[in-house]
Design brief:
Elements (H helix, E strand, L loop, with lengths): L1 H35 L3 H13 L5 H14 L2 H14 L3 H12 L12 H9 L4 H24 L3 H33 L3 E4 L3 E5 L8 E6 L3 E8 L2 E6 L4 E5 L3 E3 L1
Antiparallel strand pairs: 1-4, 1-7, 2-3, 4-5, 5-6
């Protein structure tokens, strides 16, 4: 009896990933069909069901963003386009993101780039995978340079190998540091999108605090700190204040 029970459990464990995959494919197909039929709420429901299983992809976020855009939910449309771009820097996604941002009520102008933001922008020039591939190339180039210095028959060859080896070491270290920074930024993004249709930005983490400004969905924020159920945020125009945690979602 115990052996039969173990066999059944084993078969269920093996079959579960197959069932899960079939469920994802079914939801994705159903969502796509619903979108084509302009049943955007049904499409959203099925795309969100896929995300609930832990499955993520640039296409999934892109399609979900399109569905929210068609429903007029600009905040969630922008959020999902931004998430799609983290996985795949697609021209189509950037175009749709620009369309969604054009529909925002709050058209804020950038106050300029802080040193921290400039550094993060530079790190974001490539994805973590891109920096990793560059790191691998530099490591091999540096090793090749030292080998060339050791076994080169001509003095000019050894000199070039030594130069490549010396220059390569700091480049490898810098690229490794940037790749690690990029990985941390991707895993703990401080960028967020306001999802509330309308909400007050306050001077303190208190629902009765002085109102600094009234914001609308889709505004991009940088999360500075968290106290209880409130986020201290900075807008792209440099303004800072407090918003309820429930009103925003990290990219």
């Amino acid at each position: 009896m115990n052996r039969l029970f173990l066999i059944i459990i084993y078969l269920l464990i093996i079959a579960n990933p197959v069932w899960a995959q079939n469920s994802v494919e079914t939801n994705f197909s159903t969502a796509n069909t619903a979108y084509e039929q302009k049943d955007y709420q049904k499409a959203i429901k099925n795309y969100e069901a896929i995300l609930a299983t832990g499955n993520q992809s640039a296409t999934l976020f892109y399609n979900l963003g399109n569905s929210y855009y068609q429903r007029g939910t600009i905040g969630k449309a922008i959020l999902n386009y931004e998430r799609s771009l983290l996985l795949n820097d697609s021209e189509d996604t950037r175009y749709n993101l620009a369309l969604a941002k054009d529909k925002q009520i709050d058209q804020l102008s950038s106050a300029g780039t802080t040193p921290q933001q400039g550094w993060e922008k530079m790190v974001g020039t490539f994805s973590t995978n891109g920096w990793t591939m560059l790191l691998i190339f530099l490591v091999w180039a540096t090793v090749a340079g030292w080998i060339w210095w050791l076994i080169g028959k001509k003095r000019t060859h050894r000199k070039r190998g030594f130069t490549f080896g010396v220059i390569g070491i700091p480049l490898v270290l810098l690229t490794a540091f940037i790749a690690n920074t990029g990985y941390k930024i991707e895993k703990d993004s401080r960028r967020a999108i306001l999802l509330e249709k309308e909400i007050d930005l306050r001077i303190s983490p208190d629902p009765k605090g002085k109102i600094l400004n009234t914001l609308h969905e889709g505004v991009e924020l940088n999360l500075l700190e968290e106290i209880n159920d409130w986020y201290h945020v900075r807008l792209i125009n440099g303004d800072q204040g407090w918003l309820p945690e429930s009103s925003v979602e990290r990219i």
